[in-house]
Amino acid sequence: MSEIHTAKVDIYFDYSDETFETYRVHEPAQAIEFVISGTGLRLLLARLFTPTVYLSMTNIQKDGNRFYFSKPTLISAVETHYRNVLRVNQLKLDRLDAPFFAASIKKIPVRLHEDFILADGYAWSSELNFTPDSLYVSGSAEKVDSLEYAFVVMPTNKEFTTSLDEKLSLTQDLQVNYKWSEMQVHATQKISRYTQIELRLPIEVLDPVESIDVSVIPAFAQVSLRVPVQQARQIDPSQFILGCRLPFDTISEFLAVDFEKIPDNIVVNEITPSQVRYFIN
After folding, report:
1. What is this structure's pTM?
2. In 116, 139, 147, 254, which residue has its Cα 20 to 30 A from 16's Cα atom?
């Protein structure tokens, strides 16, 4: 039967199963001295190779604002690490204060970090949707309160020619420095092939006053539009209302020209002129 020996062994601790409700403050690891007994060879190996024993956060306890692991939990973790071949004879430490604190948790909206790159001749034909559209973030109150958005990015620079239907990840900085309810969101957005068309449209005076007769110069504008290819043949000038509104004062000499009515999925490139003179007859 192998002879049983006793020796002092320095052991480092780390942590597993971290929870969303706590955050960790990283501190330099310090070895804790245990008096351990076991067979000569196994005990020698334990002394030569300083082990790191993991403490599960499921076993953590709280005392006021501090989290700690009790003495029995430390002993059990060490003996389990050595598969109960080595036994703890003595531990002077009554408890191990853990570098964890109660976290501040906040729900923030998802946003795109940088706009997607579209191939020439393409444009988005629907709103960008995220599922979920908000994420919970956990950490110190100071850091969490400074966040306004959960930014997501594409994994690579990609020119889109088909509709977006992908999982997007949080930026690397957000992943490293915070805890999140989810690391990815599902993003969808429709894309269409576009062509450019030119229209000459009359400029109307919108919301006219019955007692005032107003004329604008010029009376027509040239508009440049991007239109989905499948929609281009159905475009008719009657689908648009281009106009301007009288100012509340009589100082302004020019009126801004903009669309009052325009079909869905059409992008305005340019309106020429963008302002017109007006005259009260």
Report:
1. 0.70
2. 147
